[in-house]
Write a structure and sequence with these properties.
The complex is a heterodimer of chains A (260) and B (495). Chain A is 42% helix and 23% strand. Chain A is of the alpha/beta class. In chain A, a hairpin with a 2-residue loop joins β4 and β5. In chain A, α3 packs across α5, α3 runs parallel beside α6 and α5 packs across α6. Chain B starts with a helix and ends in a 21-residue tail after the last helix. Classes of the chains: A alpha/beta (260), B mainly alpha (495).
Chain lengths: 260, 495
């Protein structure tokens, strides 16, 4: 088997006395769509934040494409190829959609301070190409003709799409989506699910998803990992997870298990 | 309050119109430009009447009124040439032309403006020396704008950069270090002077670079802090450096800054005799308060243009986008691959560079670097310029800097003189005050009131940046790290 794209080794995060993520071993294979589920407060987002360098783990390691990224600052994670969206949308609200995507390209562009002041031909060319590419990305994400719109003026669904477009602009190998369908109606959710599947086909992306909507999780994932109280309690294909007793217990309580 | 004032003005407006026999419908049926023209003419007319009644009338007031109308009425920004919106450059260029020619119509050998009218309350048009200072403060305010306006880092110690620039000029272009004797293109320096004398044209960029390095050194430990904490630490640095300057006359026995006496005299800039004879450029700018003020003014104008140019270019660059992204949401910016420390440090260094250039130029213009000039108040003053004009907006910051500098150096004096002449003890029919009112004494109180009023009615500044205006009215989404932990209520789809 190939080396996994992302691997965590006994990854642990404590906030004071609270263990938010308890020694989780976890892998994301190359080219897979993996979902991370779990009840509220299970530590999913904390786990995510460690995978993107926003939090420093208390113990353990994060290995991406064979390189140990533990304790490096967030922008290095992005440079190496981990793109992300946020659970509570964190667009640059007062920048246009196009500018949002251009910010996403930051680490793939080279324009230095002096070049930018002097407008050297190289910077001009780079900026023009970047704008072109940004428009393509917006169109790909279903935001055609919205490039001059301010982030805050976009509809909720469009803001979610723009977050993905912005994450794609960082040219990730692995895309982390934190509850991308939260607040979407069933039709938007279905569209988004097929969009995620398309991302893998068109761009060869590996996707890691935190999701609460089971239709999305079961519909699109190759593998599902379940966290509860910071611990990994189950891992497997969607089918296996649906039958797993510990998962049902975690979500519905012990009573549900004894009833069934 | 604001709405009520507006309603009162528009009520008056409609009443005046109907008195002229123009109904609301007929008025609205007029073309847009015509309406703009009428409105502008009314305002300018009111202004002229005020000058006539309360100021000193000169025929040139009509010319000024005409220039204002020509600038304000047509929609220049809509003019396009081959699909490019060239019109938007018209007003800045016109303002530049007015500024460049200012010494010709507003200045004679006495330093007063003989042909220009005197405004009510504000009195005479600014003197040349005030104009030079305006230029220096515009450079500094634009420099601070990189830090505060673009990157959103509150810096309360900007005066430190001003001081570094000023002292660099002092060290490199005066007789301070009389132990050595270095000359490099120093112009107008009396033969036989000891010390380091490097041409001011080289000292300006050198001072900028040294200050930028200083900015990086100050920035590295402090820029890890957020918001208020950063403000406090920068405030500390802003206090430390002037104290070092004040007490630096015996650093381990070495006289670095000449203590409270300051470094003086500092060489003026100049072009040397060869250029003086061939192109009749000034050989050297000479001392403060001479007719060379206009040379200083044009020089500072060139520096201002370079600063504006850099500001605009950087704002629209990759780095500028990163600054704005950091201002909007630091976490998201980091997640988009922006190295926070490095990007913030660049903002700091760029801001420091222009602070240093302005400081060096000021030292040269003033002929001295003196620790008394680097008070905390200067930091606040520059910050007020940026905030008042409109953070992040180049035109706004320039306006803010010019206005505050003018008030500071001349305006408040003039206002005080006008008030005393009209209502004071010697002047008028009734005595409002028993003794003459010293308006400049209340300088910082007045600035405080201005700031409070602006914050209440127009928090985004007088000439706001579109983005900044939105931030002030809707807030930014920049919360500290720990809020990410709390899961929001999730959708009902959860199993």
């Amino acid at each position: 088997m190939d080396e996994p794209l992302l691997q965590t080794v006994v990854l642990r995060k404590e906030f004071g006395g609270l263990v938010a993520v308890d020694s989780v071993d976890f892998t994301v294979p190359q080219g897979a769509i993996v979902s991370l589920i779990g009840p509220n407060g299970a530590g999913k987002t904390t786990f995510f934040n460690m995978l993107t360098g926003v939090y420093k783990p208390t113990a353990g390691r994060v290995v991406f494409a064979g390189e140990d990224l533990t304790n490096l600052p967030p922008h290095v994670f992005t440079q190496r190829g981990i793109g992300r969206t946020f659970q509570n949308i964190r667009l640059f609200q007062n920048m246009t959609a196009l500018e949002n995507v251009l910010v996403g390209m930051h680490c793939r562009l080279k324009g230095k301070l002096f070049e930018s002041v002097l407008h050297t031909p190289r910077v001009k060319r780079e900026e023009r190409a970047a704008r072109q590419h940004a428009r393509e990305l917006l169109e790909y994400s279903g935001l055609r003709r919205k490039d001059r719109e301010f982030g805050r003026n976009l509809s909720y669904g469009d803001q979610r799409r723009l977050e993905v477009a912005r994450a794609l602009a960082t040219e990730p190998k692995l895309l982390l989506l934190d509850e991308p369908t939260a607040g979407m109606n069933p039709q938007e959710t279905a569209e988004f699910t097929s969009f995620v599947a398309r991302l893998r086909e068109d761009r060869g992306l590996t996707v890691l998803l935190i999701e609460h909507d089971m239709r999305v999780v079961m519909g699109v994932s190759d593998r599902v990992t379940v966290l509860d109280y910071g611990e990994k309690i189950a891992e497997g294909t969607p089918g296996e997870i649906q039958k797993n007793e510990r998962v049902i217990e975690a979500y519905l309580g012990t009573a549900a298990v004894s009833l069934s | 309050m604001r709405r009520r004032i507006r309603a009162a003005i528009s009520g008056l407006w409609w009443r005046a119109l109907s008195a002229l026999g123009l109904s609301r419908e007929r008025w609205l049926a007029l073309p847009h430009t015509a309406r703009r023209a009428v409105k502008a003419t009314v305002w300018v007319g009111i202004g002229l009447l005020l000058v006539l009644g309360l100021g000193v009338w000169k025929p040139s007031a009509l010319a000024i009124a005409a220039v204002i109308l020509v600038l304000v009425v047509p929609r220049y920004d809509r003019i396009t040439f081959r699909g490019r919106r060239v019109g938007k450059h018209f007003i800045p260029l016109a303002v530049l032309a007015i500024a460049v020619t200012y010494p010709f119509y507003a200045y004679n050998s006495n330093g007063v403006s003989p042909s220009l009218p005197q405004l009510p309350v504000f009195g005479t048009f600014p003197l040349m020396s005030t104009m030079v200072n305006m230029g220096i403060f515009v450079i500094m305010a634009l420099g601070l704008n990189f830090v505060v306006g673009y990157a959103g880092l509150l810096d309360l110690g900007y005066v430190a950069f001003y001081a570094i620039g000023s002292y660099t000029a002092g060290w490199l272009a005066s007789s301070q270090f009389s132990q050595v004797n270095v000359r490099f293109g120093g112009i107008g320096v009396i033969q036989g002077l000891t010390g380091i004398h490097i041409s001011m044209w080289l000292v300006l960029p050198i001072a900028g670079i040294i200050t930028a390095i200083g900015g990086i050194l100050i920035g590295l430990p402090t820029l890890r802090l957020r918001g208020d904490y950063l403000a406090i630490v920068t405030l500390g640095f802003g206090e430390i450096l002037p104290l070092v300057a004040r007490n630096g006359d015996s650093l381990g026995g070495f006289n670095l800054t000449n203590g409270t006496g300051g470094i003086t005299p500092i060489d003026p800039p100049g072009f040397g005799n060869w250029l003086h004879h061939h192109l009749s450029l000034p050989a050297n700018y000479g001392a403060l308060g001479t007719t060379f003020d206009r040379d200083y003014f044009w020089t500072v104008l060139v520096l201002v243009l370079l600063t504006i140019f850099t500001s605009a270019r950087l704002r629209d660059s990759r780095l500028g986008r990163a600054w704005i992204a950091i201002r909007e949401d630091e976490i998201a910016a980091a997640a988009m691959g922006i190295p926070l420390m490095r990007t913030k440090t660049w903002a700091y260094a760029t801001g420091a560079f222009f602070g240093g250039v302005a400081g060096a130029f000021y030292a040269s213009y003033n002929g001295s670097s003196n620790p008394d000039e680097f008070f905390f108040q200067i930091s606040v003053l520059i910050l007020v310029m940026v905030i008042l004009g409109g953070m992040g907006n180049i035109a706004g910051v320039i306006f803010g800097a010019c206005f505050i500098t003018y008030l500071n150096l001349e305006g408040l004096n003039n206002i005080g003189a006008w008030l005393n002449n009209h209502f004071g003890p010697g002047g008028s029919n009734f005595e409002l005050w028993h003794k003459a009112l010293d308006v400049p004494q209340y300088e910082y109180g007045i600035f405080g009131v201005i700031l409070v009023v602006v914050m209440l009615f127009r928090p985004e500044g007088l000439i706001p940046n579109r983005r900044r205006a939105a931030e002030f009215h809707e807030g930014v989404h920049d919360e500290p790290l720990y809020d990410v932990v709390h899961d929001q209520p999730v959708t009902e789809g959860a199993a």
